[in-house]
Structure formats: structure tokens, C-alpha cells
């Protein structure tokens, strides 16, 4: 079955911030949002998108000067055909992937909107902080700890307003509080970040 193949394919994506576990969380969160908000979605589309949406970040798939979401979308058809995913749903999976990042425009379907919300939520709260700190010195996003803290502050300030669905906004409000609390405590414990 295609689900087994896609899991085997995605398990090789090892990364502390956007690896296999991130894929699992985004899928689960997307499905939870749909359920709570009473939205009818194609679960197969969300599942497939979850496990390949960041593949463009990994070798041998990544391409210099191409955003990982765009690169992942470029590879969607071939990848899903290889795992025998229903061909008539590939276009929708590609659209979800193209629009999944917080800086992307909203996608054309409920699946794309919910998936984007779920991906944004994984940049927020305790899990978001953990992901950002896990890549300090390993990724262009966070070359140093002070840059990572600035990114956490930026995400705390900006991501909540990017959420669209009611349930995502509810979760995001809690996660924003977690981020603000962390930043306040860190500021206090490091003498206004002087001794970070």
C-alpha cells in the first residue's frame, strides 16, 4: 500500500527541526484542526503532503537557490507516482506543499489552509522553541544562539496572526504565551540577554 511506501521513503529525512517527527506532528495537527473545526478534508492528501512537504530540504533532492517548498512541489508527482499514490489527487498534494510555509500565500483548498496552519503551529510554543534551538550552528536560519532567540521572538510576534482556522488560532494563542513566557524568563535570567 502507498502509505507503507511513503513512510519508508520519509523515514530517511533525519533532521532535528524538519525531519520525520515534524512530518508526523504536522499530519496529526492538521487532522485535529479539521476534526475540531468540523471541516471535511481529504485525509489521503494531507497524509501524503505531510511526509514529503520538506523533502526539498534534503540531499539529494535539494537544489541551490530554490526554496524547499517549491523544490518539494517539483518532486511531488514523480515521488507519489513511485509509491502508487492515487494519481487524481497528486495535483492537490502539490498545491498543499507549495503553500505550506508561513511566508507563502494561502492555498486554494481547505487541505492547503489547514496544512499551513499545522506547519505554522510547529514553529510555535515549546516545540517551536525546541526545533529552533536544535539547529543552532547547523542551519542558515540560526547560525548562533542570539540569532535563534531573535527568530523565536519574531515567530512569537508574527505567527499567530497568520493562522486562519479557529482551532489553529486557539492552539496558537497558547503557544504564543509559551514563547513569550520563555523569552521573559530567559531575558530575566541572562540580565536582559547580556549573558546569553
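^ C-alpha cells above, recovered residues below v
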Amino acid at each position: 500500500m502507498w502509505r507503507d511506501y511513503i513512510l519508508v521513503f520519509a523515514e530517511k529525512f533525519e533532521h532535528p527541526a524538519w525531519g520525520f517527527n515534524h512530518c508526523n506532528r504536522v499530519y496529526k495537527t492538521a487532522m485535529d484542526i479539521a476534526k475540531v473545526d468540523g471541516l471535511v478534508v481529504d485525509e489521503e492528501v494531507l497524509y501524503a503532503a505531510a511526509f514529503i512537504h520538506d523533502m526539498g530540504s534534503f540531499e539529494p533532492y535539494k537544489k541551490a537557490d530554490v526554496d524547499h517548498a517549491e523544490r518539494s512541489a517539483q518532486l511531488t508527482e514523480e515521488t507519489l507516482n513511485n509509491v502508487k499514490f492515487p494519481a487524481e489527487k497528486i495535483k492537490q498534494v502539490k498545491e498543499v506543499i507549495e503553500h505550506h510555509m508561513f511566508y507563502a500565500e494561502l492555498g486554494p483548498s481547505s487541505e492547503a489552509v489547514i496544512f499551513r496552519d499545522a506547519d505554522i503551529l510547529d514553529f510555535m510554543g515549546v516545540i517551536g522553541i525546541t526545533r529552533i534551538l536544535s539547529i543552532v550552528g547547523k542551519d542558515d536560519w540560526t547560525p548562533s544562539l542570539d540569532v535563534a532567540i531573535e527568530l523565536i521572538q519574531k515567530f512569537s510576534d508574527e505567527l499567530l496572526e497568520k493562522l486562519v482556522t479557529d482551532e489553529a488560532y486557539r492552539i496558537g494563542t497558547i503557544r504564543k504565551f509559551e514563547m513569550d513566557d520563555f523569552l521573559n524568563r530567559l531575558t530575566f535570567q541572562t540580565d536582559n540577554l547580556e549573558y546569553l
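The two ends are 50 Å apart (CA to CA).
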